[in-house]
Amino acid sequence: MIYKRWQVAAIIIAVLIGVLSALPNVLPPQALRYIPFSQQIYLGLDLKGGTYLQLQVDIPAAEKERAQATLDQIRSALRTARIQYTDLRLVADSVALRITDPNKVADARRVLLPITGTGLAPEYSVTEGGNGALTLKPEEAALRGRTDDVVTRTIEIVRRRIDQTGVAKSRAPTASSSSLPAFRTRTGSRPSLAPRPR
Description:
Elements: H1 5-22, E1 52-56, H2 59-80, E2 85-91, E3 94-99, H3 105-111, H4 113-116, E4 124-128, E5 133-138, H5 140-164, E6 170-171, E7 182-187
Antiparallel strand pairs: 1-7, 2-3, 3-5, 4-5, 6-7
């Protein structure tokens, strides 16, 4: 294809304007006063080396959902074993109930073993009160383990979603042994854990 002279001149002028427009972004500030175009192009965070995404994992909400699920499991297990109970309810992060027949407390505890856990790392500690009352309270070690698991799964979900956008060199932190409920990720550089302000 043969271009006419005026077309070639128009292309050259357009290229020169583009080069002059880009010069302020590569020249030092002292040299800007010597060129006709001194307006620099503003670079967003994504062009300056990465963007940060900070998320807060709602651990209390996750524990509340787990406690509700535990309550439903307790209800089902006791009904299956035909052990009567009353006043089954959530108390903070614990589950409380009263066995109608105090003589059935030992049977109830045995039925609830698959829920409370056994061995060196049980999920819940079971305490007895008067008149057949039982309280299931989460163990601290189990709570820390669940917190780490929630943070790990959340980071993995965020990492997969970032990768689907085609962002190059996206990274997310791995869960540590700490139960920090907040983390920060940056595309293009290595992120770090960020604890929630108190």
